[in-house]
Please model this.
Amino acid sequence: MSDLPAPPAGQRIGTVIIAFLIAFIADQASKWLVVNVVMQPPRIIGILPFFNLRLGYNTGISFGMFADQIEGYATSFALFKMLVTAGLIVWALRTASALERWGLALIAGGAAGNILDRYRQGGVTDFLDFFWNGWHYPTFNLADVAITVGAGLMLLAIFCPASSRS
Model:
């Protein structure tokens, strides 16, 4: 990366808080709305020929993997995820790259939304269902979208370092 100085601490903190809260609040508000309003009663709602709202709960890791293996270690798994999320926030506060800061904070905010779900209900609330010709992508939520966008911003910062400063 370049030798440009990092922006003032106040600017970095503000950016991290805003990006984190955008991801966290959008995720939690959308999950509340889907569970308490849209999916009363629970059903599949067709939105587009390739997109449904379909309520589900993921007790595993990404895409429901390892659900049986982590079942007995839910608290340990949650603590590990909280430590990783805290590490992402520290990293975001220290970087001079605006793209990295936004990316890391969006990832942390999305992760925090999913951690809260696991704590409250033992699994992550998912409801976005994309499909094609009978094949369904694993159902996901806005926290997952924030994590994916954050990862994309991190990649952009790597491949376009000069444009990611400030």
Notes: The mean pLDDT is 89.
